[in-house]
């Protein structure tokens, strides 16, 4: 596993950290939003989540929650099917890997290599993960051109994806010089997902 201390720039602003800085009532509201996504209900009164949007834990469009990390209200390459729950889309590869930990459920993630479309699958059962292909990795990337006014869904989510192999990841990064990025092995990517999202529904009130 990669030394997680080297991932500070990707985890220091984690959703879990941002959630813990919210007042108790806003944390409860955030958890309600996440549970609505788990139940496939994505519509909420936009006025009720303005403060969550300001904290970059959700985003709204026309009064509807379109992003509630780790969930995406619109299709992405990262589809997650948790046992006993409807299939959902995750904002990025790390978000997808964090969903089973957040919901405390077994699940299956399907995605595709952005270089050549190779199908990628990650399955977790009772805490044990299996990846297909076994060589798959995750590129955790941050766009360097976007300033502090940009949200994570603009800076990191489009640039954090599964790749079928380290070679594919390196080829991708060689053609995307605008990214501050690292290639994460499977165990490190899974741990990043857990650290970012594992406590969102169960942390302190």
Radius of gyration: 16 Å
Low-confidence stretches: 8-12
How many DSSP-defined strands? 11
CATH fold type: Beta-Lactamase
CATH class: Alpha Beta
Helix- and strand-based class?
alpha+beta
Mean pLDDT, rounded to whole units?
84
Number of domains: 1
Taken from the alpha-carbon principal axes, the silhouette is: globular
Strand content: 25-35%
Instruction: Give the proportion of residues in helices.
Output: 25-40%
Question: How would you characterize the largest beta sheet?
Answer: 8 strands, antiparallel
Give the termini separation.
32 Å
Order of helices and strands: HHHHEEEEEHEEEEHEHEH
User: Count the helices. How many?
Assistant: 8
Based on the structure given, which CATH architecture is correct?
2-Layer Sandwich
Query: Strand order across the biggest sheet?
Result: 1-2-3-5-4-6-7-8
Task: Looking at this protein, list some descriptive labels.
Beta-Lactamase; eight-stranded antiparallel β-sheet; three-stranded antiparallel β-sheet; 32% helix
Describe the secondary-structure layout.
Blueprint: H1 8-11, H2 15-20, H3 24-38, H4 50-54, E1 58-61, E2 64-68, E3 71-72, E4 78-82, E5 88-90, H5 93-103, E6 107-112, E7 119-125, E8 128-132, E9 137-143, H6 152-155, E10 161-163, H7 166-174, E11 179-184, H8 186-197
Antiparallel strand pairs: 1-2, 2-3, 3-5, 4-5, 4-6, 6-7, 7-8, 9-10, 9-11
């Amino acid at each position: 596993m990669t030394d997680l201390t080297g991932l500070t720039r990707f985890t220091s602003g984690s959703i879990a950290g941002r959630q813990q800085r919210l007042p108790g009532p806003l944390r409860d509201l955030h958890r309600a939003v996440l549970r609505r996504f788990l139940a496939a209900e994505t519509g909420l009164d936009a006025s009720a989540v303005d403060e969550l949007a300001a904290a970059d834990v959700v985003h709204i469009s026309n009064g509807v929650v379109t992003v509630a990390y780790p969930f995406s209200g619109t299709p992405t390459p990262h589809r997650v099917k948790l046992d006993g729950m409807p299939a959902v889309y995750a904002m990025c590869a790390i978000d997808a890997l964090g969903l089973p930990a957040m919901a405390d459920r077994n699940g299956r993630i399907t995605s595709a290599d952005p270089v050549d479309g190779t199908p990628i699958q990650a399955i977790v059962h009772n805490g044990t993960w299996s990846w297909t292909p076994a060589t798959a990795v995750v590129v955790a990337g941050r766009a360097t051109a976007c300033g502090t006014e940009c949200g994570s869904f603009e800076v990191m989510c489009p640039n954090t994806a599964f790749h079928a192999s380290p070679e594919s990841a390196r080829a991708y990064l060689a053609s995307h010089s605008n990214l501050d990025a690292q290639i994460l092995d499977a165990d490190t990517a899974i741990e990043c997902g857990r650290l970012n999202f594992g406590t969102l529904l169960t942390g302190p009130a």
